[in-house]
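Worked problem 6 (solution included).
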Amino acid sequence: MSARPKERHRIGRIGWLRAAVLGANDGILSTASLVLGVATAHATHNNVLVAGVAGLVAGAMSMAAGEYVSVHSQADTERAELDLERTELTADDRGEHKELAASMKTLQVLRGEHSVS
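Solution. The predicted structure is:
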């Protein structure tokens, strides 16, 4: 009997893919709008080019800073939540285990693995 090949799911990549698509769309639209605005002001070809490049650089820096802050904010929130759970485990180990068991049972019911009783 041959072993079944391990399934490869791509769900873990959705976050960065979504961010990349939204970031690209935002960059294209904001840079195009900036270039159109400068061009309609009857600027020279060089001025339009400089404005476009400046818009691209500013947009890239803005997206990078926003992503950095977002990732670190999420990490800080997760760390604080873990610290809270550790404190609660120390204070009421039995109660926390009951809470976990109830959560697992609810998850099983929602997945259809366990009947409501």
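Discussion: Residues 11 and 89 are 31 Å apart (CA to CA).
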